[in-house]
Amino acid sequence: MNVKLDPEIAVSRIALAIGEPARARILYCLLDGSARTSTELAVVANVTPSTASVHLRRLKMQRLVKVFAQGKHRYYSLEGVNVAAALETLSVLAGGSCAPFVPSTPHWLRAARTCYDHIAGSLGVSLHDRFQTLSWLSADSPTGQDAFDLTPSGQKRLKVLALTSKKVGRCAVASHTPAWTGVSDDLISGGRSRRPF
Asked: The dihedral of CA 147, 77, 71, 121: what is its sign?
């Protein structure tokens, strides 16, 4: 049964969802466009992971956040630009903006690391972006809709750099995977990217 709510009731439910301080911290953390795990959001909200899950369920029920799964991990982000605009407007009404989320991950780990089967961190994101700019990656990957494969020119250029397919595995691939360094793609080899935690 699809019952349409009065606008006043719908607004009050959304306001109640936003109005709890831990949920507000979660929403404002996502305002930067990032996608984060419930574990990360629990730290931001200063609540236990199980409490964060309850809050996230409530926010999702009110269509303030959306979730997508990648492997065993679930990533939460704002439902859309309307939610971001509402949060920004509420910040103005409240007399200021919230402090941006600053991850506590060590800088050297955010800069460059390997993660399962891929290059991650700022280095992985930069390589992915550069390879796309150079047209070394193709979105027509037979491995899945969320992956890229090397183009013939990409394979040729990597061979010049002495990265043969034997050294790289099947081939270097990129995946639409949120990186710790932001909502960007990591560079991976040998298959789909997986998150580090």
From this structure: positive
Average pLDDT over residues 130-141: 79
- Cα gap 161→75, rounded to integer Å: 35
Mean of the per-residue pLDDT values for the chain? 74
Compute how many other C-beta atoms are within 10 angstroms of the C-beta atom of residue 59: 26
Start-to-end CA distance of the chain, whole Å, equals 39
H or E element in which residue 181 lies: none
pTM over cut 0.70: no
Instruction: Tell me the three state secondary structure of residue 28.
Output: helix
Of all residues in the chain, what percent are helix, strand and coil, respectively (each to 5)?
45, 20, 35
48 — pLDDT class (breaks 50, 70, 90): very high
Count CB atoms within 10 A of the CB of residue 129.
Answer: 15
- DSSP states along 82-143: HHHHHHHHHHHHHTS-PPPP---S-HHHHHSEEETTEEEHHHHHHHHHHHHHTT-EES--TT
Structural domains of the chain, with CATH: 7-94 (1.10.10.10), 107-189 (no CATH)
95/89 Cα distance (integer angstroms): 10
Q: Are 52 and 26 in contact (CB under 8 A)?
A: yes
| Contact of 155 with 161, CB cutoff 8 Å | no
Is residue 127 a contact partner of residue 119, using CB atoms and an 8 Å limit? yes
